[in-house]
Specification:
heterodimer; A: about 425 residues; mainly alpha; Arc Repressor Mutant, subunit A; 18 helices; elongated; B: about 120 residues; alpha+beta; Alpha-Beta Plaits; 4-stranded antiparallel sheet; two-stranded antiparallel sheet; 2 helices; about 25% helix; globular
Amino acid sequence: MEQPELIPHLFRTEFRKIAAVLCKTFGIGHIETAEDIAGDTFLAAIETWSYKGLPENPTAWLYLVAKNKARNYLTRNSIFAEKIFPQLNQRAPEFEETDIDLSEQNITDSQLQMLFAICHPSISTESQVGLALRILCGFGIDEIANAFLSNKETIAKRLSRAKEKLRNEKVNIEFPRETEISKRLEAVMVTLYLLFSEGYYSESRDTILREDLCFEAMRLTHLLIDNERTDQPIVNALLSLMCFHSSRFAARKNENGEIILYDDQDETLWDQELIAKGAYYLRRASQGNTVSKYHIEAGIAYWHTVKTDTKEKWENILQLHNQLLQIEYSPIAALNRTFALSKANGKPAAIAEAEKLNLANNHFYFTLLGELYNGIDNDKAKANLAKALRLAKTNTDRQTIQQKIDSLSSKKD
Amino acid sequence: MDEFVLLMRHMDGSKIASPEQMQAWMKQTMDWIGGIAAQNKFVTGTGLPFDDARVVNSDKVVTNGPFGEIKETIGGYIIVKADSVEEAVEFAKGCPVLQGEGNTVEVRKVAKKDGVH
């Protein structure tokens, strides 16, 4: 039976296309209707196909049904608008007699325009990621809840508030004007970056879901690169960064979902094809004069695809972090910079710098200090790791730290 | 938190350094700035290249370069965030420029645009 596998697959690829086109056709106030019609279309497919068997072209069947449902909705609405609204003495919503265009071109255009519409400053970045997952990636509410380590009710509420906000703001689903592209693109990239990170760093045990999030972020970034107007160096830098990171997917967790530290990873599991893609987009990113944080992070990620420790490697990683921190400070960048400093300039220099960092609530900070003191002052190393253990929030982190403490203790014996 | 500008002054900017020396200074400077940025205390900064340097005198006579009668030149500046001038001075002490004899780093508070200064 291929049916049980076909429907989830079609759902993944076609729901988001139908939803985006219908959103574009109906306008931002009707996202929920678009979702409902797209969802109903798949319900109809399951009901019909179970009895009559698969149609010759399942996708075409879905599009036809979606179009009919959309047209019925518009007709009902116009009856409502023409007959009932005047009696209520209210202005009727305007629906033009439009054909539902499910051509490849219009699907791509609608998805891109929806991406810009969703990444609107009136809603939080978290809501933007959620809506993008729902409308542009076709994720179910429970999947989104799982990814955010939240529950269905919370996510459903968050998304519906976000949709209401977009409706009230009367956000247009359109391609931004030439003069606005850079600024709007920045917001879109923040969301895509967060979507990717959500997948890459998520604590969710669902490995497939996590990878899906990353690949969806890459697919949407690709959408931007496929359009001439948004194919900008900075977007290429973002995709390059995503490619380099995701190349280590298979190597960075063991079968129990525990993180395998970079040094211990089996580099034969690194995906060379993704590394090559990352290099390709990094080359495309280096046209132009702007160096963004995405460029720098892609550069750092590139050097991590070189497993052999060389002076050159760590010097480059250090300098890239020096630059990154000047553009945008973050505690994790400060810690990674200090680690690179220990590799490039030696542990004593790094310890002096690490002691100046004011990150007393961060368990990664004390893990790093433990690492730096290891072999220089093992008592201090242990004391720092003990602090890290107390501050660690997840079991995975506690296990990793405990292993370090154990290996330090066995060294002394 | 206040902002302080650290002005790096060289005694003799006309001295030609070897490429290796310049490379080493560049790395030291980048590591120094990176260290400040890692504490989230970096605001902005730049080097000031000697190319196209001009001095406009009070009689409007323009001379090439900051050299000539003036021995001391400004090589660059950075602006840092600090709780006190003492903290800013600690940052300044790490500046690689100070390795050159006679060089100085001047620490000055940036006036707040609050109507008081």
